[in-house]
């Protein structure tokens, strides 16, 4: 009852956004203007908080170089390109995102990271990467994306399909807190309004369970807490899985 009451209070505070959504105005405005702007600013903060973890996560990317000597990466939900700085020199990156409105921030990241070869940008959902041939990439990268895809299992299935045998799926995602914690209590309260404001972002997904149930042959996963005070997205998982 307390969760429902506090949800209603939060919805009242966000009533203008709910009204714009009802009128069909908020979603296109969010996708085209608000969310690209917000994500670029948030990515800068999140990158500072997770820089050491990302450096450690992507340190072994060269180990998955194909026998031909090339390292082909596919990033699902590239956004503004916050991960480019961590990729090894000379790797080839295919960028994908369901939202094509990140181009300005993405271009800035590309210009800053000339050590990476950018092959193409595809407007595609994580659950439908039909433009990418099966077994054609050495690594798939997915950070802060699985919270908002329509199907986590569908996205992981596509990642497995496009990976060559022996390739790796890298992830860094915010997840549901422990159910007995105050963090989870606040996640439950914020859930509906947060999802509306931040373009479908879900606060309570237990993504580690999807990864454990996917058909990876090896999974290295760690639960961490990212210092993002006054937000409901501090609990994260980080790691990689091998096909």
UniProtKB/TrEMBL annotation:
Keywords for this protein: Methyltransferase, Transferase
Sequence ranges assigned to domain Methyltransferase type in this UniProt record: 74-171
Pfam family, one: Methyltransf_11
Superkingdom field: Eukaryota
Record Gene3D superfamilies: Vaccinia Virus protein VP39 (3.40.50.150)
Listed SUPFAM superfamilies: S-adenosyl-L-methionine-dependent methyltransferases
Protein's UniProt keywords contain Transferase: yes
CDD domains given in the database record: AdoMet_MTases (cd02440)
Keyword Amino-acid biosynthesis in record: no
Protein name: Methyltransferase-like 7A
GO MF terms held by the record: S-adenosylmethionine-dependent methyltransferase activity
Species name: Pygoscelis adeliae
InterPro entries membership: Methyltransf_11 (IPR013216), SAM-dependent_MTases_sf (IPR029063), Thiol_S-MT (IPR052356)
One annotated GO biological process: methylation
């Amino acid at each position: 009852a307390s969760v429902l009451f506090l949800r209603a209070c939060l919805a009242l505070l966000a009533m203008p956004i709910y009204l714009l959504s009802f009128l069909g105005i908020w979603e296109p405005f969010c996708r085209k203007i608000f969310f690209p702007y917000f994500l670029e600013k948030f990515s800068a903060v999140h990158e500072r908080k997770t820089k050491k973890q990302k450096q450690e996560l992507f340190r072994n990317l060269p180990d998955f170089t194909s026998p031909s000597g090339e390292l082909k990466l596919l990033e699902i939900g590239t956004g503004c390109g916050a991960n480019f700085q961590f990729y090894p020199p000379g790797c080839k990156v295919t960028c994908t995102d369901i939202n094509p409105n990140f181009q300005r921030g993405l271009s800035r990241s590309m210009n800053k990271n000339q050590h990476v070869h950018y092959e193409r940008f595809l407007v595609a959902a994580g659950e439908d990467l039909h433009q990418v041939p099966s077994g054609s990439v050495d690594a798939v990268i997915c950070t802060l994306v699985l919270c908002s895809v329509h199907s986590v299992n569908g996205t992981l299935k596509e990642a497995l399909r496009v990976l060559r045998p022996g390739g790796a799926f890298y992830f860094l995602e915010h997840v549901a807190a422990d159910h007995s914690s105050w963090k989870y209590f606040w996640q439950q309260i914020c859930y509906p309004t947060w999802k509306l404001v931040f373009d479908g972002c879900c606060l309570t997904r237990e993504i580690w369970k999807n990864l454990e149930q996917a058909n990876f042959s090896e999974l290295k996963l760690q639960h961490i807490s990212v210092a993002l005070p006054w937000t409901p997205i501090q609990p994260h998982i980080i790691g990689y899985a091998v096909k």
